[in-house]
Q: What sequence folds into this?
């Protein structure tokens, strides 16, 4: 096996410790443009990433589609000889007992052939054509099966199979000179987590509803963020702001804030790497450490950062199992699935909209500023709320707030729970400033 | 099996068109944080990909070694046949190209000992460390050498070797409970001479410190001046993506059907030019083997061209512009930009500021995105200055601009003489390719700023 060859070669080339991360991926994809299949694709790849250490000197080497693991192991050892010492490096990870999750690999997804995948995806494309105003539907379905393994001279020896599906549909609409667009999205580790009709209909519906657009001026309003508008916000809070590396180097606005009240006390924010079938879940992280559930914010108080082995050892604590990487880079830190727990603020989805005037944000791609904790970005797809009714689509609408204010003004959490892109949760309602060119 | 054999096999299997691409990439990366080398990586990648067309349907397959080429060809052809069940026919009347092009660089990075590269990174770290109030220094240097060959059933046979080098600094500063950061990078095609003499870490450090005294930008609509980095990212993201042939053909662009029409003020000209040697987005041949060329996308406010690959050029009745690119050869080539910029005008930055009674000077770019169908965009600047009575008065942070692309191009009323280019990576459909964005300073009569 590549990983065994690599570890053996690194050690025999002078490394004191060595670790190999091996990734096999088989992926099929269907790419649709203008409603027609554009490309069907089938790709396989083997990746090998090797870390080798001599004392406090650490080197890394990788190869995509190597013919053997030995050369990569030797190169990692050579790199460790060339590397200057890192005083905070306390060795490669020790072995920890891993309890394997069985709900990560769906045989139906693994065995899905391209014909069936194309039929499935085209059903979503058809569902997006809700009227003649939808002039184009494009998108992509990707289905992958992977085998991930970590082997090290420290006794780490873990391996598992995972499947993953991601589907997105974009619909463009036109009515005279008015243009609109919408999208639908799904991801998961199980085939039935992709509902083609729902994803297509969502894209088509948004494309039609965004044709009728208006603008607003500068106002402070109740703003409802749907789940798709939160995956760049809430996971960022955990994966970046509460990322131990960013805190240790003083890059994050949460540096030195452990124990501080940063959200209202009804709110907890958790990272969980073990929820069955979610894309953020795995039995072990990219260093072979078991994943777990971590309360990052508990009852409004910032409780814990997320760690990989390096940052945990630097602080003398246990890794939280949040090491992440592909085979081309040494491990970084990422969140798994982040969710808001706030049972005291829970209400029905429609009750969140019960405001005189407000904004419903369906989608934003923006993230807060890591060092200041401020957010300044666009409500990419948004609607005006008037007297409890969602009315016109909004264009050129900016939003500005501090993340702490977002968490402290949050007065409602909806029951419309969705999981996507490492986030699990319902709509939330906050009070923030929005700005546009004027009504 | 060799690549020529693969072409014959693909045609025997019934493909209307078949293309085989082989790629070898070698890379080194050094990441230093606060003076400590945290990452020292060397890597290599090898890929062969096969793309087949059958009655309008494309199939794409991969071989991980020469032994697997025949299987990849059969895979690609059978997938193309599968796609063709739902596809529209495509006429294969495309041109072919033969040639080779190698860039070596004066100081080839792949022949430079790793210790010498570490010294370059250390020097940048030292520069940033010398700036007071700096609390975290992140210096990254990466170099790649990419050797490619593209052949197809129309007779195209292209070999190309392109070395790239990039140095980047991400610096944090802190004072009295406030943390700020700034980013700066240099990079291009060639050897280590591309990044010689740069003081990017010091530039980033000084800007991070300067930002500590910044106030949030005032939200709402204001006259604005954009610096070359931000104007360059704007023209790339908001306009360039809308001028890509696939978006145009698919009717997903605000520019569909607008060739020859006025899309901006007459002071605006936009160019995409992969032939500028040394720039990060340079290539002589694109990833379909088409020879690259300079072209105006907008000339004095008039839409004068789109960027195309073989297929979209044919569908639009235009010549292919050599804009087919793929991140690596496990991805099919799609229409992409190269070195895209607003051409120079005749203003100076000082003239623009001195004529402005009230407005915002926004500079630097953190990120941006656009919806080419609606024509709506958002860009996050690194910072800004409030302008009052012709003077830069107050440093601003959280400077985000949103707007409608064509409105902004029409509201652009002054373009500077000071064109400059910036290296970056552009993402589209999950594929990242090296590009440069570029522009002089530009003035826009009104722009919507976010803020709190």
A:
């Amino acid at each position: 096996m590549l990983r065994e060859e690599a570890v053996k070669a690194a050690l025999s080339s002078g490394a004191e410790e060595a670790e190999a991360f091996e990734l096999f991926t088989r992926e099929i994809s269907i790419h649709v443009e203008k409603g027609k299949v554009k490309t069907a694709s089938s790709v396989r790849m083997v990746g090998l990433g090797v870390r080798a250490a001599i004392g406090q000197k650490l080197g890394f080497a990788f190869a995509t589609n190597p013919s053997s693991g030995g050369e990569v192991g030797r190169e990692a050892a050579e790199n460790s000889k060339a590397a200057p010492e890192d005083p905070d490096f306390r060795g490669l990870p020790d072995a920890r007992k891993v309890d394997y999750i069985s709900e990560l690999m769906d045989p139906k997804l693994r065995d899905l052939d391209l014909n069936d995948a194309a039929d499935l995806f085209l059903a979503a494309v058809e569902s997006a054509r809700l009227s003649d105003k939808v002039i184009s539907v494009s998108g992509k379905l990707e289905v992958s099966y992977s085998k991930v393994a970590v082997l090290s001279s420290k006794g780490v020896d873990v391996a598992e199979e995972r499947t993953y599906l991601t589907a997105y549909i974009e619909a463009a609409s036109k009515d005279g000179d008015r243009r609109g667009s919408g999208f639908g999205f799904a991801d998961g580790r199980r085939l039935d987590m992709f509902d083609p009709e729902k994803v297509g209909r969502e894209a088509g519906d948004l494309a039609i509803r965004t044709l009728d657009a208006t603008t607003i001026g500068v106002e402070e309003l109740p703003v409802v963020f749907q789940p798709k508008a939160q995956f760049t916000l809430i996971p960022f809070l955990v994966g970046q702001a509460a990322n131990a590396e960013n805190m240790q180097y003083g890059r994050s606005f949460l540096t030195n804030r452990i124990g501080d009240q940063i959200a209202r006390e009804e709110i907890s924010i958790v990272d969980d790497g073990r929820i069955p079938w979610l894309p953020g879940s795995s039995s072990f992280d990219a260093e072979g450490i078991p994943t777990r559930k971590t309360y990052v914010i508990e009852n409004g108080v910032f409780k814990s950062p997320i760690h990989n082995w390096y940052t945990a050892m630097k602080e003398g604590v246990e890794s939280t199992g949040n090491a992440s990487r592909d085979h081309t880079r040494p491990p970084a830190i990422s969140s798994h699935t982040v969710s808001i727990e706030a049972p005291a603020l829970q209400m029905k989805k429609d009750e969140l909209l019960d405001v005189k005037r407000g904004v419903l944000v369906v989608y934003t791609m923006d993230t807060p500023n890591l060092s200041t904790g401020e957010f300044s970005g666009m409500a990419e797809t948004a609607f005006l709320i008037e007297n409890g009714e969602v009315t016109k689509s909004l264009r050129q609408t900016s939003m500005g707030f501090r993340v702490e204010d977002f968490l402290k003004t949050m007065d409602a959490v909806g029951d419309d729970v969705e999981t996507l892109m490492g986030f699990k949760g319902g709509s939330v309602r906050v009070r923030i400033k929005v700005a546009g060119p004027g009504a | 099996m060799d690549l020529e054999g693969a072409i014959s096999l693909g045609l025997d299997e019934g493909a209307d068109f078949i293309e085989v691409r082989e790629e070898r990439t070698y890379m080194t990366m050094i990441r230093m944080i606060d003076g400590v080398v945290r990452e020292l990586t060397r890597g290599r990648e090898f890929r062969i990909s096969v793309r087949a067309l059958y009655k309008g349907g494309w199939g794409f397959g991969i071989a991980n070694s020469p032994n697997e080429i025949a299987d990849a060809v059969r895979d690609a052809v059978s997938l193309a046949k599968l796609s063709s069940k739902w596809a529209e026919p495509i006429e294969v009347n495309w041109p072919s190209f033969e040639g080779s092009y190698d860039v070596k660089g004066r100081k080839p990075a792949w022949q430079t000992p790793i210790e010498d590269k570490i010294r370059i990174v250390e020097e940048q770290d030292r520069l940033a460390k010398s700036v007071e109030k700096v609390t975290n220094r992140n210096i990254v240097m990466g170099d790649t050498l990419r050797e490619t060959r593209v052949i197809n059933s129309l007779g195209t046979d292209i070999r190309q070797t392109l070395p790239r080098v990039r140095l980047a600094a991400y610096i944090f500063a802190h004072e009295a409970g406030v943390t700020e950061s700034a980013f700066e990078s240099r990079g291009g095609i060639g050897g280590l001479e591309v990044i010689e003499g740069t003081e990017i870490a010091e530039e980033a450090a000084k800007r991070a410190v300067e930002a500590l005294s910044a106030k949030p930008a005032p939200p709402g609509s204001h006259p604005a001046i954009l610096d070359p980095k931000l104007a360059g990212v704007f023209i790339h993201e908001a306009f360039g993506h809308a001028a890509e042939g696939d978006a145009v053909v698919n009717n997903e662009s605000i520019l569909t059907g607008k060739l020859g029409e006025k899309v901006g003020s007459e002071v605006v000209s936009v160019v995409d030019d992969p032939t500028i040697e040394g720039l990060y987005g340079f290539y002589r041949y694109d990833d379909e083997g088409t020879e690259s060329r300079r072209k105006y996308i907008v000339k004095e406010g008039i839409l004068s061209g789109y960027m195309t690959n073989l297929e979209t050029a044919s569908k639009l009745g235009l010549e292919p512009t050599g804009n087919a690119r793929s991140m690596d050869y496990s991805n099919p080539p799609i229409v992409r930009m190269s070195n895209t910029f607003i051409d120079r005008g005749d203003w100076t930055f000082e003239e623009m500021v001195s004529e402005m009674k009230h407005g915002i000077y926004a500079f630097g770019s953190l990120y941006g995105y656009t919806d080419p169908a609606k024509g709506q965009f958002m860009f996050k600047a690194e910072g800004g200055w409030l302008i009052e009575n012709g003077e830069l008065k107050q440093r601003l942070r959280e400077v985000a601009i949103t707007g409608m692309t064509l409105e902004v191009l029409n509201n652009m009323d002054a373009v500077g003489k000071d064109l400059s280019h910036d290296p970056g990576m552009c993402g589209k459909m999950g594929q990242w390719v090296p590009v440069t964005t570029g522009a002089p300073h530009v003035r826009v009569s009104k722009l919507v700023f976010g803020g709190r």
About this structure: The mean pLDDT of chain B is 94. The first helix of chain B runs from residue 3 to 12. Chain B has two domains: 3-213, 215-449. Chain B is about 20% helix and 40% strand.
